[in-house]
Amino acid sequence: MVSLNDVAKTAHVSKMTVSRVLTHPELVSLEIQKDVQQAILELGYVQNRAGRALANKRHYNIAFVLLDDIAEIEPYYAHLLIHLTDALRHHGYTLEVRHDREFDLTNVDAFLVSGARRTDVEALHLPVPVVIYGMEPGLISVDSDNAVGTAMATEYLINHGFEHILYLGLAINEPFALNRETGYRQTMLRYGLPIEAYELPNNEAAATELIGLIAPNPGTGIVTATDRLALGALRASQALGLTFPNEIGIIGFDGIYIHKLSSPTLTTVQQPLGVIANTMVKLLMAQLNGETVSSKLITPTLVIGNSTP
Amino acid sequence: MVSLNDVAKTAHVSKMTVSRVLTHPELVSLEIQKDVQQAILELGYVQNRAGRALANKRHYNIAFVLLDDIAEIEPYYAHLLIHLTDALRHHGYTLEVRHDREFDLTNVDAFLVSGARRTDVEALHLPVPVVIYGMEPGLISVDSDNAVGTAMATEYLINHGFEHILYLGLAINEPFALNRETGYRQTMLRYGLPIEAYELPNNEAAATELIGLIAPNPGTGIVTATDRLALGALRASQALGLTFPNEIGIIGFDGIYIHKLSSPTLTTVQQPLGVIANTMVKLLMAQLNGETVSSKLITPTLVIGNSTP
């Protein structure tokens, strides 16, 4: 393993100088910086991060905190995590995963958080930068533009001839759920169509039961808050003998796995996880550089499947 | 923040003594150990891990390396990751996520790896402990007992009256895929029943197409290598007008979330991710303590759904 001493010898400078080039290059002449950097490249020297951390008080490590219970962990977290790992790597940071509410500051420079609810906001006011995946007032947040997503879905159904359009939403008092319902409501109002919105727990069975009870007529469209709900609605529709894509049109939300597993495949509002992850990291790095940042909403994409025209 | 100096003052000892209690307690009297530990508890002192790392050469950090491409990432990796995070935390270790093939030793004491294939085995012979989720000769491996899993599935169908039983497997030259097929083959041989095994890519459409072509008669059972394949087979069976659970019986493999999304729900061989994760961590900690360990196969569980009697 190449040591700092090896670099110093190769560059014909003292160890102190090498260290200074790494931590305070502004104190060293350009020529010496170049010599040292050249030696580092040639020798393949990797700084002992523990040593560097003590010198800079920067750990180059970010904690990604999953606040969800294991039963609520959405399968797409694996994708989000990979995107975050890749994005942080480009900035020279490692990603540590945490599954607790302690927000222990040991060895981390900042936090990325998923699954935060209103009740977590206060604990997340920390002396280091925090960016959440989601939307909570008071925290730097990155999320899909939920209202735009369901608005797109609703408008798509209207444009394809559906006038009786239901909304299956989530019985959760959180901004993402409220915004998804808002997108539907405002679009229906804009087109002068009657609103029929329901709130359910996020599982297929609840949606199947509801649609079974409602027994919608041909020509009905359904906008849902999640692909899980859409899947449940799809099952009930099939059981009622309604055919896709013209007698009934269903649009989900998420677009990570479930939409491709159903038969017919679901038209859905796809959350752009890669863009979300990159934006979270960008905002975090900016904060670590001392910049002021603000929350970002990313426009999702409507992915057409076979559950609509 | 509480410093080592504060602990020393509270315990009426030198800083050197406090440090020794933390790293070489065997060199310090029991009475002084107790005084120092009491002071640590009272003050809530947390060791600066970077400092401790340089002293012990142990980083108390494990890297979990996902070798899969993002398109192949199984959604249940999120569950595995959470289980690993929780298990490592009990041992006082943090979990770093990596998505590259460099196996950089910087700041990690050991590796947990997922998605390793035969071609990765050589690169995984590292100077630190490695445990993989999977089964590769030459590496300490933890996996579901794949052969036992499909054997249980096959025997279940036989015991419920199915004699014509097909196997839908994976066209992958890896131990897990070969072992799942072996479990079916050996059980059929044991019962004197004819083997009919197919190998497909791991997606629902391939299974749907195959079963559509085969057009099995009522009384046929299907054992599959994954829930994805089972889902595809289930769709084709429904399209052929076969009814569950008696005209056709289908059993999948994985049991993380797909089995619950299908209609009817799938009977499946469930991988015990929690036990797998805990076992991986246990073997890793043992190796870090200098013990010799061996690979472990964990018996999966047959979870009965509505796709079989």
Automatic annotation (TrEMBL), chains A, B:
Signal peptide stretch: none
InterPro entries, A to Z: HTH_LacI, LacI/GalR-like_sensor, Lambda_DNA-bd_dom_sf, Peripla_BP_I
Ranges where the HTH lacI-type domain occurs: 2-56
PROSITE patterns: HTH_LACI_1, HTH_LACI_2
Keyword Methyltransferase on entry: no
Keywords of the record: DNA-binding, Transcription, Transcription regulation
SMART domains, sorted: HTH_LACI
Keyword Magnesium listed: no
GO molecular function, one term: DNA binding
The name this protein goes by in its record: LacI family DNA-binding transcriptional regulator
UniProt organism field: Weissella fermenti
